[in-house]
Design a protein that fits this description.
This is Sigma-54-dependent Fis family transcriptional regulator. The protein has 16 helices and 14 strands. The protein has 375 residues and is of the alpha/beta class.
Amino acid sequence: MRKTLGERLAYEGYAIEATDDVSEASEMCRQMAFDVVLTDDSSNASPLGIPFIVLAGAGDNQIQRAVTAFRDGAMDFLQIPSDINRLYDTLRRYSEEEAPTQTPLPKQRMSAHAMGRARRTRTSSVQPIIGSSNAIGNVRQVVERIAAFDTRTLITGENGTGKELVARWLHAKSRRASGPFVEVNCAAIPSELIESELFGHERGAFTSAIKQRKGKFEQATGGTLFMDEIGDMSLAAQAKVLRALQENKICRVGSDKDIDVDVRVIAATNKNLREEIAKGNFREDLYHRLSVIVIRVPPLRERSSDVPELTQHFVDEISSLYGIPPKPIDSDAMEALSAMRWSGNVRELRNVIERLIILSGDTITIDDVHKYCQS
Ligand SMILES: Nc1ncnc2c1ncn2[C@@H]1O[C@H](COP(=O)(O)OP(=O)(O)OP(=O)(O)O)[C@@H](O)[C@H]1O
Protein backbone atom coordinates (compact mmCIF):
# COMPACT_ATOMS: atom_id res chain seq x y z
CA MET A 1 0.00 0.00 0.00
CA ARG A 2 2.81 2.35 0.92
CA LYS A 3 4.55 1.85 -2.40
CA THR A 4 1.48 2.13 -4.59
CA LEU A 5 0.10 5.10 -2.73
CA GLY A 6 3.50 6.82 -2.71
CA GLU A 7 3.80 6.44 -6.47
CA ARG A 8 0.29 7.65 -7.08
CA LEU A 9 0.70 10.71 -4.86
CA ALA A 10 4.06 11.51 -6.42
CA TYR A 11 2.31 11.39 -9.80
CA GLU A 12 -0.26 13.87 -8.42
CA GLY A 13 2.58 16.27 -7.68
CA TYR A 14 3.23 15.71 -4.00
CA ALA A 15 6.74 15.25 -2.66
CA ILE A 16 6.79 11.93 -0.85
CA GLU A 17 9.12 10.21 1.54
CA ALA A 18 8.27 6.69 2.59
CA THR A 19 9.60 4.27 5.14
CA ASP A 20 8.43 1.27 7.13
CA ASP A 21 10.66 2.08 10.06
CA VAL A 22 9.40 4.37 12.79
CA SER A 23 12.75 5.63 14.02
CA GLU A 24 13.88 6.29 10.47
CA ALA A 25 10.69 8.24 9.95
CA SER A 26 11.39 10.36 13.03
CA GLU A 27 14.85 11.04 11.73
CA MET A 28 13.47 12.10 8.34
CA CYS A 29 11.18 14.48 10.16
CA ARG A 30 14.14 16.09 11.81
CA GLN A 31 15.74 16.76 8.51
CA MET A 32 12.86 17.76 6.26
CA ALA A 33 9.73 19.86 6.47
CA PHE A 34 6.63 17.70 6.03
CA ASP A 35 3.04 18.85 5.86
CA VAL A 36 1.19 15.72 6.76
CA VAL A 37 1.65 12.14 7.87
CA LEU A 38 -0.03 9.08 6.45
CA THR A 39 0.26 6.16 8.81
CA ASP A 40 -1.53 3.01 9.83
CA ASP A 41 -0.64 3.53 13.48
CA SER A 42 -1.76 6.70 15.21
CA SER A 43 0.32 5.97 18.30
CA ASN A 44 3.48 6.43 16.22
CA ALA A 45 2.35 9.64 14.62
CA SER A 46 0.60 11.50 17.42
CA PRO A 47 3.65 12.10 19.64
CA LEU A 48 5.09 14.32 16.90
CA GLY A 49 2.13 16.66 17.13
CA ILE A 50 1.91 16.87 13.33
CA PRO A 51 -1.35 16.63 11.37
CA PHE A 52 -1.85 13.00 10.40
CA ILE A 53 -4.31 10.75 8.61
CA VAL A 54 -4.74 7.12 9.63
CA LEU A 55 -5.16 4.58 6.84
CA ALA A 56 -6.53 1.13 7.53
CA GLY A 57 -6.81 -1.90 5.31
CA ALA A 58 -10.11 -3.70 4.82
CA GLY A 59 -11.10 -6.15 7.50
CA ASP A 60 -9.14 -4.60 10.35
CA ASN A 61 -11.12 -3.84 13.50
CA GLN A 62 -12.39 -0.62 11.98
CA ILE A 63 -14.45 0.87 14.77
CA GLN A 64 -11.86 0.35 17.46
CA ARG A 65 -9.12 1.64 15.20
CA ALA A 66 -11.14 4.69 14.20
CA VAL A 67 -11.87 5.46 17.84
CA THR A 68 -8.19 5.14 18.72
CA ALA A 69 -7.12 7.23 15.73
CA PHE A 70 -9.42 10.13 16.55
CA ARG A 71 -8.60 9.88 20.21
CA ASP A 72 -4.95 10.28 19.28
CA GLY A 73 -5.85 13.39 17.28
CA ALA A 74 -6.01 12.11 13.68
CA MET A 75 -7.31 14.52 10.99
CA ASP A 76 -9.15 11.66 9.35
CA PHE A 77 -9.50 7.90 9.34
CA LEU A 78 -9.78 6.25 5.94
CA GLN A 79 -10.12 2.73 4.69
CA ILE A 80 -7.89 1.90 1.77
CA PRO A 81 -8.64 1.12 -1.03
CA SER A 82 -12.35 1.97 -0.71
CA ASP A 83 -11.77 5.54 0.57
CA ILE A 84 -8.93 6.31 -1.81
CA ASN A 85 -10.77 9.13 -3.56
CA ARG A 86 -11.61 10.67 -0.22
CA LEU A 87 -7.93 10.61 0.61
CA TYR A 88 -7.06 12.50 -2.59
CA ASP A 89 -9.82 15.02 -1.88
CA THR A 90 -8.73 15.52 1.71
CA LEU A 91 -5.13 16.08 0.71
CA ARG A 92 -6.07 18.44 -2.08
CA ARG A 93 -8.34 20.48 0.17
CA TYR A 94 -5.78 20.48 2.93
CA SER A 95 -2.99 21.72 0.72
CA GLU A 96 -5.23 24.39 -0.81
CA GLU A 97 -6.38 25.61 2.58
CA GLU A 98 -2.92 25.59 4.02
CA ALA A 99 -1.06 26.96 1.01
CA PRO A 100 -1.08 30.67 1.96
CA THR A 101 0.70 30.02 5.26
CA GLN A 102 3.37 27.90 3.63
CA THR A 103 6.88 28.99 3.04
CA PRO A 104 7.08 28.76 -0.74
CA LEU A 105 7.82 25.16 -1.51
CA PRO A 106 7.49 23.93 -5.05
CA LYS A 107 5.45 20.97 -3.88
CA GLN A 108 3.74 19.87 -0.73
CA ARG A 109 6.04 17.52 0.99
CA MET A 110 4.50 14.47 2.47
CA SER A 111 5.61 11.31 4.10
CA ALA A 112 3.69 8.21 3.22
CA HIS A 113 3.12 5.75 6.03
CA ALA A 114 5.62 7.68 8.02
CA MET A 115 5.98 10.91 9.87
CA GLY A 116 6.01 14.47 8.70
CA ARG A 117 6.65 17.87 10.10
CA ALA A 118 5.84 21.29 8.87
CA ARG A 119 3.02 23.05 10.62
CA ARG A 120 3.04 20.57 13.46
CA THR A 121 0.78 21.28 16.41
CA ARG A 122 -1.61 24.09 15.76
CA THR A 123 -3.93 25.32 18.45
CA SER A 124 -6.88 24.10 16.43
CA SER A 125 -5.57 20.55 16.48
CA VAL A 126 -5.62 20.33 20.28
CA GLN A 127 -8.89 19.20 21.77
CA PRO A 128 -10.62 21.79 23.93
CA ILE A 129 -10.42 21.62 27.72
CA ILE A 130 -14.09 21.16 28.57
CA GLY A 131 -15.67 22.28 31.85
CA SER A 132 -17.10 25.39 33.49
CA SER A 133 -16.29 24.58 37.12
CA ASN A 134 -14.06 27.01 39.00
CA ALA A 135 -11.52 24.23 39.39
CA ILE A 136 -11.01 23.69 35.66
CA GLY A 137 -11.42 27.44 35.02
CA ASN A 138 -8.40 28.02 37.27
CA VAL A 139 -6.39 25.48 35.30
CA ARG A 140 -7.30 27.18 32.01
CA GLN A 141 -6.38 30.56 33.47
CA VAL A 142 -2.94 29.37 34.57
CA VAL A 143 -2.38 27.83 31.13
CA GLU A 144 -3.22 31.18 29.49
CA ARG A 145 -0.94 33.09 31.85
CA ILE A 146 2.15 30.95 31.62
CA ALA A 147 2.00 29.53 28.12
CA ALA A 148 3.96 32.40 26.61
CA PHE A 149 6.84 31.90 29.01
CA ASP A 150 9.34 29.11 28.72
CA THR A 151 8.85 28.28 32.38
CA ARG A 152 9.33 24.68 33.39
CA THR A 153 6.03 23.36 34.58
CA LEU A 154 5.00 20.36 36.63
CA ILE A 155 1.47 19.08 36.10
CA THR A 156 0.13 16.90 38.89
CA GLY A 157 -3.10 14.95 39.17
CA GLU A 158 -4.59 11.49 39.24
CA ASN A 159 -4.64 9.28 36.17
CA GLY A 160 -7.03 10.40 33.48
CA THR A 161 -7.59 13.93 34.80
CA GLY A 162 -6.28 15.59 31.65
CA LYS A 163 -2.62 16.29 32.43
CA GLU A 164 -1.47 15.53 28.90
CA LEU A 165 -4.24 17.69 27.46
CA VAL A 166 -3.04 20.59 29.63
CA ALA A 167 0.55 20.01 28.46
CA ARG A 168 -0.57 20.07 24.82
CA TRP A 169 -2.36 23.37 25.43
CA LEU A 170 0.71 24.89 27.07
CA HIS A 171 2.64 23.96 23.96
CA ALA A 172 -0.01 25.05 21.49
CA LYS A 173 -0.32 28.48 23.08
CA SER A 174 3.40 29.06 23.40
CA ARG A 175 5.83 30.64 20.99
CA ARG A 176 7.08 27.10 20.42
CA ALA A 177 3.77 26.02 18.90
CA SER A 178 5.31 25.57 15.48
CA GLY A 179 8.01 23.34 16.95
CA PRO A 180 7.58 19.69 17.89
CA PHE A 181 5.70 18.39 20.93
CA VAL A 182 7.62 15.31 21.97
CA GLU A 183 6.25 13.03 24.63
CA VAL A 184 8.21 10.54 26.68
CA ASN A 185 6.59 8.20 29.15
CA CYS A 186 9.29 7.81 31.78
CA ALA A 187 7.50 4.86 33.42
CA ALA A 188 7.44 2.84 30.21
CA ILE A 189 11.18 2.88 29.50
CA PRO A 190 13.40 0.33 31.25
CA SER A 191 16.02 2.13 33.34
CA GLU A 192 18.91 0.73 31.30
CA LEU A 193 17.47 2.31 28.14
CA ILE A 194 16.36 5.64 29.48
CA GLU A 195 19.62 7.45 28.93
CA SER A 196 19.77 6.50 25.27
CA GLU A 197 16.06 7.21 24.84
CA LEU A 198 16.37 10.71 26.30
CA PHE A 199 19.81 11.71 25.08
CA GLY A 200 20.40 9.48 22.05
CA HIS A 201 23.45 7.43 21.25
CA GLU A 202 26.34 7.25 18.84
CA ARG A 203 26.77 4.33 16.52
CA GLY A 204 28.50 1.47 18.34
CA ALA A 205 27.86 2.94 21.82
CA PHE A 206 26.50 -0.48 22.81
CA THR A 207 25.89 -3.77 21.04
CA SER A 208 22.50 -2.92 19.56
CA ALA A 209 23.46 0.65 18.62
CA ILE A 210 23.86 -0.01 14.92
CA LYS A 211 23.02 3.55 13.94
CA GLN A 212 23.44 6.94 15.52
CA ARG A 213 20.18 8.03 17.09
CA LYS A 214 18.90 11.32 18.45
CA GLY A 215 17.19 11.21 21.82
CA LYS A 216 13.96 12.87 22.89
CA PHE A 217 15.70 16.04 24.10
CA GLU A 218 17.23 16.62 20.69
CA GLN A 219 14.04 15.63 18.88
CA ALA A 220 12.20 18.30 20.86
CA THR A 221 14.61 21.09 19.88
CA GLY A 222 12.67 24.29 19.28
CA GLY A 223 9.60 22.76 20.90
CA THR A 224 8.38 21.11 24.05
CA LEU A 225 9.46 17.90 25.76
CA PHE A 226 6.62 16.40 27.78
CA MET A 227 8.03 14.04 30.40
CA ASP A 228 5.06 12.00 31.59
CA GLU A 229 5.12 9.88 34.77
CA ILE A 230 8.30 11.60 35.90
CA GLY A 231 7.80 10.27 39.43
CA ASP A 232 8.51 6.74 38.15
CA MET A 233 11.98 7.46 36.85
CA SER A 234 14.92 5.70 38.49
CA LEU A 235 17.29 7.74 40.66
CA ALA A 236 20.10 7.11 38.18
CA ALA A 237 18.03 8.55 35.33
CA GLN A 238 16.96 11.47 37.53
CA ALA A 239 20.63 12.41 38.01
CA LYS A 240 21.14 12.54 34.25
CA VAL A 241 18.01 14.57 33.64
CA LEU A 242 19.04 16.97 36.38
CA ARG A 243 22.31 17.67 34.62
CA ALA A 244 20.52 18.26 31.32
CA LEU A 245 18.17 20.72 32.99
CA GLN A 246 20.90 22.50 34.93
CA GLU A 247 23.17 23.02 31.98
CA ASN A 248 20.78 22.89 29.04
CA LYS A 249 23.23 20.46 27.51
CA ILE A 250 23.05 16.78 26.79
CA CYS A 251 25.56 14.19 25.77
CA ARG A 252 24.67 11.22 23.57
CA VAL A 253 25.59 7.82 24.97
CA GLY A 254 29.00 6.89 23.57
CA SER A 255 29.99 10.49 22.86
CA ASP A 256 32.06 12.94 24.86
CA LYS A 257 30.66 15.99 23.10
CA ASP A 258 28.03 18.15 24.78
CA ILE A 259 25.13 19.33 22.64
CA ASP A 260 23.13 22.46 23.50
CA VAL A 261 19.42 21.87 23.73
CA ASP A 262 16.67 24.41 23.28
CA VAL A 263 13.67 22.70 24.82
CA ARG A 264 10.87 23.64 27.14
CA VAL A 265 10.32 20.84 29.63
CA ILE A 266 6.87 20.08 30.97
CA ALA A 267 6.67 17.18 33.41
CA ALA A 268 3.67 15.33 34.77
CA THR A 269 3.08 12.87 37.55
CA ASN A 270 0.24 11.19 39.39
CA LYS A 271 2.46 10.83 42.45
CA ASN A 272 2.92 13.19 45.34
CA LEU A 273 6.53 14.13 44.66
CA ARG A 274 7.01 15.70 48.09
CA GLU A 275 6.16 12.32 49.63
CA GLU A 276 8.45 10.58 47.15
CA ILE A 277 11.25 12.97 48.17
CA ALA A 278 10.64 12.14 51.85
CA LYS A 279 10.81 8.42 51.01
CA GLY A 280 14.08 8.92 49.14
CA ASN A 281 12.57 7.98 45.77
CA PHE A 282 12.80 11.38 44.11
CA ARG A 283 15.59 13.95 44.08
CA GLU A 284 14.66 17.21 45.71
CA ASP A 285 17.01 19.22 43.48
CA LEU A 286 15.31 17.79 40.39
CA TYR A 287 11.90 18.59 41.85
CA HIS A 288 12.91 22.24 42.21
CA ARG A 289 14.25 22.33 38.65
CA LEU A 290 10.99 20.98 37.29
CA SER A 291 8.44 22.77 39.37
CA VAL A 292 8.86 26.48 38.76
CA ILE A 293 5.11 26.42 38.15
CA VAL A 294 2.93 23.59 39.44
CA ILE A 295 -0.49 23.00 37.92
CA ARG A 296 -2.71 20.62 39.84
CA VAL A 297 -5.44 19.13 37.69
CA PRO A 298 -8.21 18.24 40.12
CA PRO A 299 -9.90 14.83 40.09
CA LEU A 300 -13.31 14.73 38.44
CA ARG A 301 -15.09 14.07 41.74
CA GLU A 302 -13.96 17.53 42.92
CA ARG A 303 -15.64 19.13 39.90
CA SER A 304 -18.70 16.99 39.33
CA SER A 305 -20.50 20.04 37.92
CA ASP A 306 -18.35 19.44 34.81
CA VAL A 307 -19.76 15.96 34.26
CA PRO A 308 -22.83 17.00 32.20
CA GLU A 309 -20.75 19.20 29.88
CA LEU A 310 -18.07 16.54 29.45
CA THR A 311 -20.74 13.88 28.92
CA GLN A 312 -22.41 15.92 26.19
CA HIS A 313 -19.04 16.58 24.57
CA PHE A 314 -18.19 12.86 24.50
CA VAL A 315 -21.68 11.88 23.31
CA ASP A 316 -21.33 14.25 20.35
CA GLU A 317 -17.77 13.23 19.60
CA ILE A 318 -18.30 9.47 19.86
CA SER A 319 -21.64 9.47 18.01
CA SER A 320 -20.08 11.36 15.15
CA LEU A 321 -17.21 8.86 15.09
CA TYR A 322 -19.71 6.06 14.70
CA GLY A 323 -21.71 8.07 12.17
CA ILE A 324 -24.91 8.03 14.25
CA PRO A 325 -27.00 10.92 15.59
CA PRO A 326 -26.10 11.91 19.18
CA LYS A 327 -28.12 9.83 21.67
CA PRO A 328 -30.20 11.84 24.12
CA ILE A 329 -29.58 11.25 27.83
CA ASP A 330 -32.40 11.27 30.41
CA SER A 331 -31.92 13.86 33.14
CA ASP A 332 -31.92 11.26 35.94
CA ALA A 333 -29.25 9.32 34.03
CA MET A 334 -27.17 12.50 33.87
CA GLU A 335 -27.65 13.05 37.59
CA ALA A 336 -26.51 9.51 38.31
CA LEU A 337 -23.41 10.05 36.18
CA SER A 338 -22.64 13.29 38.03
CA ALA A 339 -22.89 11.52 41.39
CA MET A 340 -20.37 8.80 40.55
CA ARG A 341 -16.84 8.76 42.02
CA TRP A 342 -14.92 8.45 38.74
CA SER A 343 -11.73 6.99 40.15
CA GLY A 344 -10.40 6.83 36.55
CA ASN A 345 -11.48 10.46 36.05
CA VAL A 346 -12.24 11.93 32.62
CA ARG A 347 -10.76 8.93 30.79
CA GLU A 348 -13.14 6.61 32.63
CA LEU A 349 -16.10 8.91 31.91
CA ARG A 350 -15.27 8.84 28.22
CA ASN A 351 -15.09 5.04 28.21
CA VAL A 352 -18.41 4.79 30.02
CA ILE A 353 -20.08 7.14 27.54
CA GLU A 354 -18.75 5.08 24.67
CA ARG A 355 -20.10 1.93 26.30
CA LEU A 356 -23.51 3.57 26.89
CA ILE A 357 -23.74 4.78 23.29
CA ILE A 358 -23.07 1.28 22.00
CA LEU A 359 -25.22 -0.67 24.46
CA SER A 360 -28.22 1.55 25.22
CA GLY A 361 -31.40 1.91 23.16
CA ASP A 362 -32.51 5.15 21.45
CA THR A 363 -32.06 7.10 24.67
CA ILE A 364 -29.56 6.65 27.50
CA THR A 365 -31.64 5.95 30.60
CA ILE A 366 -30.90 5.60 34.30
CA ASP A 367 -31.33 1.83 33.91
CA ASP A 368 -28.55 1.82 31.32
CA VAL A 369 -26.33 3.74 33.73
CA HIS A 370 -27.03 1.22 36.50
CA LYS A 371 -26.55 -1.71 34.17
CA TYR A 372 -23.42 -0.65 32.32
CA CYS A 373 -21.45 1.56 34.72
CA GLN A 374 -19.68 0.14 37.70
CA SER A 375 -17.68 3.09 38.94
N1 LIG B 1 -11.29 18.79 30.52
C1 LIG B 1 -11.29 17.91 29.51
N2 LIG B 1 -12.02 18.14 28.39
C2 LIG B 1 -12.06 17.26 27.37
N3 LIG B 1 -11.40 16.09 27.37
C3 LIG B 1 -10.65 15.79 28.45
C4 LIG B 1 -10.55 16.68 29.56
N4 LIG B 1 -9.74 16.13 30.47
C5 LIG B 1 -9.34 14.96 29.96
N5 LIG B 1 -9.89 14.75 28.75
C6 LIG B 1 -9.72 13.54 27.91
O1 LIG B 1 -9.60 12.44 28.82
C7 LIG B 1 -8.59 11.54 28.39
C8 LIG B 1 -7.50 11.44 29.44
O2 LIG B 1 -6.79 12.66 29.50
P1 LIG B 1 -5.19 12.74 29.58
O3 LIG B 1 -4.56 11.63 28.80
O4 LIG B 1 -4.79 14.13 29.28
O5 LIG B 1 -5.01 12.43 31.14
P2 LIG B 1 -3.69 12.24 31.99
O6 LIG B 1 -3.95 12.92 33.29
O7 LIG B 1 -2.50 12.66 31.20
O8 LIG B 1 -3.70 10.66 32.21
P3 LIG B 1 -2.49 9.69 32.69
O9 LIG B 1 -2.02 10.20 34.01
O10 LIG B 1 -3.17 8.36 32.80
O11 LIG B 1 -1.45 9.76 31.60
C9 LIG B 1 -8.10 12.06 27.05
O12 LIG B 1 -8.88 11.43 26.04
C10 LIG B 1 -8.42 13.55 27.13
O13 LIG B 1 -8.58 14.12 25.86
